[in-house]
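Please predict the structure of the following assembly.
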Amino acid sequence: MADHVADTREAPEQGVSVAQVSMTVNGTARRTTVESRKTLADTLREDFGFTGTHLGCEHGVCGACTVLVDGAAVRSCLMFAVQADGADVVTVEGLTPPGGGLSAVQQAFREEHGLQCGFCTPGFVVSVTAYLRDNPAPSDAELRAALSGNLCRCTGYQGIAAAARRAARELAEEQQ
Amino acid sequence: MSGTEATGAASPVMAAGRYIGQSVRRREDPRLLTGRGRYVDDIVVPGVLHAAFVRSTVAHGELRGVDAEAARALPGVVAVLTAADLNPGLRPTWQTMMGPQAPAAPFRPLADTDVRYVGDPIALVVAENRYIAEDAAELVAADIEPLEPVLDTGAALDGAASLVHPELGSNLAGEIPAAASPALDAAFGDAAHVVTETFYQHRYVCVPMETRGLVAQWDRPVSSSPCGQPRRDRTSSARSAHASSACPRRASG
């Protein structure tokens, strides 16, 4: 449920602009017709059923809605679905290994108790996955800076930082 | 996957041996880590309506009027409720931890003639989807004349401050007296030095990542909220339920 402050802006245009969008989501081609103003996050959740992508602040601060668009970690609440037309989108549901189970990052979050209520967790998992792909051997300061784009209200971040460190370590061992 | 799994029935003695003193893996983590959790906004109810609130932008002000006509005229809007529509049918569900003598704050689901804090709800918009509800909320015009707010607990009691709740006649919400202790009094009386200091405590407000939300269905015993207090939700919903006649269609969402 959204909260709004009172103001007196002009009425929006009566004509609603709609568009057909196509994208690959977690490896499967998807197509839907959406209002041009519909966010990628709402489209992933409502049109495609990937409710693992969560909306906390809806203005780009909390990072819970982070998904991969053509490999880049982006806030899906700040992007319209029409902007993702033709893109390859990966949500937290798409990060698990083909045979099931947990990815190295997901497993590290479990081992280090990097989650409590789990609401922010998909955003952290996607962000850490993208960051470690691009920066496989980060310093602790770099890792903490990379995590600073996501907010959590339960854990106090220590478990999350430990999970990111463990994931970096284990991914490095996998490479060897 | 190795490690301790919290599965199966165990006697308390066995449980202590299995869980205490070691890190225990949580059974819910795999679904939460793979996007298969279920939160309030993940619940799909066919035909659900969505609510958006119009709220005060000032900490204290006179609410001279609310013009909701443009919002009501927007296609897809089911209802725009103001205090006149909603307040008369509701019964208060106010809880205090200050004891039975504490005055109850006046119960106002929606602001009536004044607003008393930033975010004080002024109007409730119900629409076919949340985009339309938010559009309509932006079309509600609240005529607010800002007044001097009370920003400090000390200043609130100095007599010059305006009253937050005029109905109470005072800004004193409650008092918790310290228990009488002659021994403590004697200790202070005999002390070589007595230091007096005033301590301020920050205002603590829970701001979970999953924002407040509620899914409710009028004709089914199903209501979902993230607050983890189902019985309180049930009580407050039951006390509020008959007010939903103010809404021309079934309220759910």
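The two ends of chain A are 48 Å apart (CA to CA). The helical segments of chain A are 40-47, 104-111, 121-134, 140-147, 158-175.
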